Amino acid sequence: xxxxxxxxxxxxxxxxxxxxxxxxxxxxxxxxxxxxxxxxxxxxxxxxxxxxxxxxxxxxxxxxxxxxxxxxxxxxxxxxxxxxxxxxxxxxxxxxxxxxxxxxxxxxxxxxxxxxxxxxxxxxxxxxxxxxxxxxxxxx
Length: 140
Description:
This protein is of the alpha/beta class and 140 residues long. The chain has six helices and four strands, in the order E-H-H-H-E-H-E-H-E-H. This is CopG family transcriptional regulator.
């Protein structure tokens, strides 16, 4: 199943997650000034750039942690066929992803519970509400 791991490249568009942050008025004013002076196209552009700079600054530590924790980096998708094959082999999965883990919409909560022993996602998990609820006691 490792053939369905893909590295995610930073980009704008539909492959993003919306977050909310609280900033002090002075910090927000600084950002607005930089946007007004043309350094950034908008507040989001500034924040994305700042985040990418911090990620790059800590890249080596992140690489070491990914290796130490045996994380899959990028996108990891689990189809119904993938999980049925795991069940047929009498195995269970310990899923560890840094990025996006997705479980197909046609995966039943029963199949998910039968095949996923644990799931840890640093980033985002996309699955039906029923599957997320079924795995709630196995997330970490």
